[in-house]
Amino acid sequence: MRSIMKGALALSVAAAALTTPASANHSWGDYHWARTSNPFTVKLGDNVDSKWDSYLVTTSSDWSASSVLDTVIVPGGTKPRNCRATSGRVEVCNAAYGNTGWLGIASISITNGNHITSGTVKNNDTYFNTAQYNTPAWRNLVMCQEVGHTFGLGHQDENFSNPNLNTCMDYTNNPESNQHPNQHDYDMLVSIYSHLDSTTTVGQSVSKWGFAGTGFGPGETGLSPKSWGRPIAFLRDGRPHTYARLDGPGRITVTHVFWVPGMGPKDSHVDE
Prior knowledge:
The chain is α/β, with parallel strands linked by helices. The chain has one domain (2-267): 3-Layer(aba) Sandwich (Collagenase (Catalytic Domain)). Helices cover 22% and strands 24% of the residues. The protein contains five helices and nine strands; from the N terminus they run H-E-E-H-E-E-E-E-H-H-H-E-E-E. It has helices at residues 2-18, 50-64, 125-128, 136-149, 183-192, and strands spanning 32-33, 40-47, 69-75, 90-95, 102-111, 115-124, 230-234, 240-248, 251-259. Strands 1, 2, 3, 4, 5, 6, 7, 8 and 9 form a nine-stranded mixed beta sheet that branches. Helix 2 crosses helix 4. The chain is globular.
């Protein structure tokens, strides 16, 4: 019972952090990579195919314009279908993940309350191979936003129908002007990384263990909500967009999901 209560408390803390309005302060909770100096470099593991390579390059270049962090694309360390996490870096993947109802998901492993130790990004070709989403604008938007989440950024706006804010961290039904970060995103990163840590989680190897009953390690998830844990933040229409899963003492995997506009958990038909 005590362990259950501790788990519930940890998830409640995560929920409180992630339901903060994102317009003025759009940090994702207080989540950040621990590091001892700025700028620091996050490795992006390239597990994407030729259809996605140029979008990963664009996203890496865009986020490297930040004054506090750089990114570098390195050979992938996982298989795209599973997209397993690698400690100290972000693995970026694409595959035809099926009729999941989502365009992309980003997951981060959190230790010590707020330190990111790994991240994964999945882009779902089941939808991106259709005429509606197989466009540079949609690919840039989703790639940029999901990678941005792995640095600790949330959304600037979560209403698909509002006018575009000209940032990839904005939900929209028309992504043409929302393909890249804007100055508010860069300013937010400066705020998130304004302090230094005594240790670093960037590029560091952290011991991993599977979450009981799922077989997934920290920062790893499957394709459907049942592997993501408990929904803790919701869109205005009631769809959950953030989930948290207790992985062990002091460790949580947090997942953001970019639903296909108009779809949600009920539209997921993936068995794991």
